[in-house]
Amino acid sequence: MTSAHRHRLLQAAGFALVLAVLGGVFLMYTRPAFMVTMIDQLWACF
């Protein structure tokens, strides 16, 4: 495997990871009760 192929593979893996994270965030916004619970827990830290 050449350096260019490895770079391209890592770039594609990074892109897939970003898409997965963004998809997860989008799914959490469809559950308002979860978001309220998360914000309450975050606020409790202060």
Describe the protein in words.
The protein is mostly helical and 46 residues long. It has two helices and no strands. The protein has helices spanning 3-29, 32-44. It is elongated and about 50 Å long.
Gist?
This protein has helices spanning 3-29, 32-44. The protein has 46 residues and is mainly alpha-helical.
Question: Topology, please?
Answer:
Blueprint: H1 3-29, H2 32-44
- Low-pLDDT parts are none
Rg, rounded, reads: 17 Å
What is the count of DSSP helices, taking H or I runs of 4+ residues? 2
Taking the sheet with the most strands, its summary is: none
Strand content: under 5%
Global outline: elongated
- Listing every helix as H and every strand as E from the N terminus to the C terminus, the arrangement reads HH
What is the number of independent domains? Answer: 1
Quaternary state of the chains: single chain
Mean pLDDT across every amino acid position: 91
Helix content: over 70%
The number of strands is 0
CA distance, first residue to last residue? 50 Å
Which terms summarize this structure?
mainly alpha, 46 residues, elongated
